Amino acid sequence: MNLFASEKDSESIRLNLIDADVTYYPNFFSEEIASEFFEMLLSETKWQQDSIQLFGKIHKQPRLTALYGVEGKSYSYSGITMFPQPFTKTLLTLKNKVETVTSEKFTTVLLNLYRDGSDSNGWHSDDEAELGKHPVIVSLSFGEERFFHFRQKSNKKNSFKILLEHGSLLVMKGSTQENWQHQLPKSKKITKPRINLTFRSII
Which helix (H) or strand (E) holds 139? Predict the structure, then answer.
């Protein structure tokens, strides 16, 4: 099975963001292959819903998550510490493919299940200490298309959004996390689920 789309469809787009290095591959996987991965990830993943504290109150995260990776490489964000489960065969297949394209090695993948448009992820940067100074964050999208927003930390009026398509790949590296935040906002128009995988290397 050829997991990649055709060479023509795998063309990349460099986003024009100041002090950032972001590349988008709109058709990294063909629609057929992407749909197969979506179904496998939906059923195989051990999803969980953690609680976070905001302004002194405890809230359920507005999405389901899971962490897979190298044993002993825990990951902490927003007051949550996650401990990885071993990579599944499906996740190793995806990991190998993104490592081939990016020439990077990843220890960990954080998965998010956005069940519909009421699930979201607020403004943040992937800049935790365990990711190092200039982390490479590789994001795969399967399922419903969702808009992904960027805003510059030094000038929040300088913003950008991109539609992350089914089977697409987004690569953020260099000083992107240092200078920009990103979010996946809520949308009343979205009724179907989306699965997002963010590969990273924990030092």
Answer: strand 137-143
